[in-house]
Amino acid sequence: MSVxxxxxxxxxxxxxxxxQFYVDVLGLEVAMDMDFIVTLxxxxxxxxxxxxxxxxxxLAILPQMSIEVADVDDVHARAVxxxxxxxxxxxxxxxxxxxxxxxxxxxxxxNVMCHVRGTH
Length: 120
What we know:
Elements: E1 3-12, H1 15-25, E2 29-33, E3 37-42, E4 45-54, E5 65-69, H2 72-81, E6 86-92, E7 97-103, E8 109-115
Parallel strand pairs: 1-4, 5-8
Antiparallel strand pairs: 1-5, 2-3, 3-4, 6-7, 7-8
């Protein structure tokens, strides 16, 4: 298994103010803005990232971190075989990722994902 990156997912009641903080104070740049999630990256180290997630009670489940892996199906199969709590099923999302959410033993919700070939 190959982990490509690990990104904290920060819940925000005010996405614009949060974005402004990370851009103006820390110098991060917006890499992706999908209205409900904004991913910010370090201009000098593109794997140093933070994602801001809109926390307006419209989404029932918000993960606390995202882990991009080379083979999400393999990780999903191993999580299922261990009886872990899959809180969002393995899904191909319209924005080009295949993902699932799993709770780790401490209850932290993790978005395990990979980019679908041909989209990134």
